[in-house]
Amino acid sequence: MIGKLIRKTWFWLLLLGALLGVAALGVTVTVLHKTSSTEFCVSCHSMQTPLAEYQGSIHFQNPKGIRAECADCHIPGDPTSYLWTKVRAVKDIYHEAIGTLDTPEKYEAHKLRMAQSVWDELKANDSATCRSCHSYAAMDILAQRPNARAEHPVAIKEGQTCIDCHRGVAHIMPDMSGLAAAGASELAQAAAQTPTNVTTRYAIATTPLFLDAAAKTDEGTLMPSTRVDVLANENGRAKVQIEGWQQDGVSEVFYAAPGKRILSVLVGDTAKKALVTGQSETDSATNLTWHQVKLTAWVDQTQLIGDQGKLWQYASTLMSNNCTGCHGLTALDHFNANQWIGVIKGMESRTSLTPEQARMLTQYVQKHASDMSAAH
């Protein structure tokens, strides 16, 4: 009798536990679902600015009538990542409570950090949420617009992920000048650490040229990324030899290659007399004559770096941070060296690039253009 009573008790306890478990699971699923809705996401005061940005984007309204909700972009679909994202979201409640983003000024001050965090996450997970709707395998590339038709095969070949090119598709891009300044600072530190016995170096910025080690008046300007051969070091300056090409009749400037408007040096009147002219050749496309020239000058050692890779990494970051807010990243060989000049000038005003950064970016895209060799 007692044993039968015990068995019944256990049965009802197990049944009650199962029912409570199902109820708890149902409540949990409901809470997770409700807190993943766009309505919940934008219910906080601090989300009104990103809401307005989202409502003005193609992810909110488009010709196909397909809307990507907040969760579609910000919460990965696999169970582990989904739950981890929900756990991490607790911090948002804390920041809402203490007013971290409760004014437009505060929001703008934190916007770059928040955007970078999302970009880093998407980079790390291969743009998992983007790929829940978009995939290379499902794309009819031939039916896409000309730019996309040109860029997507490059992205596939180079193993790029969506966020490499498509930033700012749902929210207005933050001011990227802080990242650029940090990158320039890192580049300057790397240049300062370049051993003095490294003879092949590259200018990290627009830099004055002097005709002797102690001169106080510059006689020309070395353009960013220009290669120099270091001949000697003295008093914090490097004696360098710079090679390039001058168009016949144009003595104020010389370029990285004949027929290519890739600025290397702006030459002052006194420096013109120090130029050594070598061979000449005629550009078959324009019938213009070009002369090979050399200039020996002095430049601040701290403005030269031996690692060209770091220089191009900085320039590449400038491009990805400033040229993906309105369109995908354009392949470097999409234009020739001279065409890139107009492209950058036309887009510069729409970015946060400084004139110095624009010069570096122009050098980068020109020296990787369709008609340039890897030697530059």
UniProtKB/TrEMBL annotation:
Domain NapC/NirT cytochrome c N-terminal residues, every copy: 8-176
UniProt key word S-adenosyl-L-methionine: no
MF (Gene Ontology): electron transfer activity; heme binding; iron ion binding
A GO CC annotation given for this chain: plasma membrane
Any single GO BP term: anaerobic respiration
UniProt-annotated binding residues for heme 4: 162, 165-166
Binding site for heme 1: 41, 44-45
Amino acids binding heme 3: 130, 133-134
Posttranslational mods: Binds 5 heme groups per subunit.
Annotated protein name in UniProt: Cytochrome c-type protein
Membrane topology type: Single-pass type II membrane protein
Pfam families on file: Cytochrom_NNT (PF03264)
Primary location: membrane
PANTHER family in UniProt: CYTOCHROME C-TYPE PROTEIN (PTHR30333), CYTOCHROME C-TYPE PROTEIN TORY (PTHR30333:SF3)
UniProt keywords, alphabetically: Cell inner membrane, Cell membrane, Electron transport, Heme, Iron, Membrane, Metal-binding, Transmembrane, Transmembrane helix, Transport
Species per Swiss-Prot/TrEMBL record: Aeromonas sobria
Location relative to the cell: Cell inner membrane
Binding, heme 2: 70, 73-74
